[in-house]
Amino acid sequence: MYDKGTTDILLAIIGEEANIDTEIDQELYPKPDWAVKQIVRSTGLVEDICEHGIGHPNIAWLRLHDPDGKKGYGIHGCDGCCADEETRMKIWGR
Question: pLDDT tens for residues 51-94?
Fold first, then answer.
């Protein structure tokens, strides 16, 4: 299902032993098409998990809880999955 580049966090999230499914209000924090899963951190931060296992802060959650970005909830080890096409082109050239 997932390639060798899949991270341990994603394997834990999708693994059968893991039962961390939390109901996330999809009207408030919709899961983007590219995300395979959503999780809620202990801080309450909703993260969209991409196919590579990277947690990307949910943009709707950020707009509500950290609108000016001063709390730093939007900082993450991004692999480009959550970027729009224009930004991906600037960063990756594709």
Answer: 888 889 999 999 999 999 899 888 887 777 787 778 777 766 65
HEC per residue, the chain: CCCCCCCHHHHHHHCCCCCCCCCCCCCCCCCCCCCCEEEECCCCCEEEECCCCCEEECHHHHHHHCCCCCCCCCCCCCCCCCCCHHHHHHHHCC
The model's confidence at residue 17, banded by pLDDT at 50, 70 and 90, is very low
**Pair of tokens at residue 25:** 């209000």
Mean pLDDT of the chain: 77
Look at the chain and report how many structural domains it folds into.
Answer: 1
73 inside domain: yes
Which residue range forms the structural domain that includes residue 54? 8-92
Residue 65 is encoded by which pair of tokens? 């809880």
